[in-house]
Specification:
Layout lengths: L2 H4 L8 H10 L9 H5 L1 H14 L3 E13 L5 E13 L3 E8 L2 E7 L3 E6 L4 E6 L4 H12 L13 H6 L2 E12 L2 E10 L3 E8 L6 E8 L7 E10 L18 E2 L2 E3 L5 E3 L2
Parallel strand pairs: 6-12
Antiparallel strand pairs: 1-2, 1-11, 2-3, 3-4, 4-5, 5-6, 7-8, 8-9, 9-10, 10-11, 13-14
Length: 264
Amino acid sequence: MNRLTKLRYAGAAAGLLVAAMSAMVAPARAEDSPAALIGEEANAALARMSKTLTANQFSFRSHTVRAYAGPNGELLHVAHTTKTVVRRPDRLLVDATGDDGSSKMMYDGKTLVVYVVDQKQYESIPVPGKIEDMVDVAEKLLGVDFPLADLLTDNPEKSLLDGVTSGGQVGVATIDGVPCRHFFFVQSPDLELELWLEDNDRSLPRRVFVTYRSLPGHPTFLAELSDWDFSIHPADADFVFQPPAGVTQVVLRTKAGGIPAPAK
């Protein structure tokens, strides 16, 4: 199951796209391959994206808006601006600033650290393995959801297409001056994914929009991706957390919406 499907976060419906896709794509059958379900054009674009994102190291920025359930069941939204640094197979740095403050997630292949900057508190957990192994632990133990983690797996194309029952290209768009292809996919159970990929040999993702049809209020997740850089050379020390003066180690809990918060 991919990270988008596992998200608890949550918006607006894509009714026109659903109607368009119902006429463009055939229902899934058990024997259908991903290429048959989404068409050769979409499959080729995702394959190019996957090849690009399996580079040894890169960084990118994202601006995200996600929804979560408030204390009375109302649908609330939180925004973040994030820089992500990747060095395969087992180094990750996520530096985020948002409506709820600033935080960092650092992984050096052995230890996962989540640092809540404004609270001057952090949690450290031993997690040997690859980036995707660490993400599983972060989700289960800390309630840290990282919906863009599908882009960081060993096979991004396979991760994104996991559970897809139909889809394909629905149009084109220009994002920050870059021509992009606009794709729409239906994933089981009741999840809709829109993906905008650059219309070139790299097929870098520039926008991701997810609608959770099975959740109350049909919540959404939106990510705008930019500043992709494949020329970086991060050192081992960049992924190791050194607690600043006055910062203490605590056990984290999860508050409403899955955002990590220090236990009191």
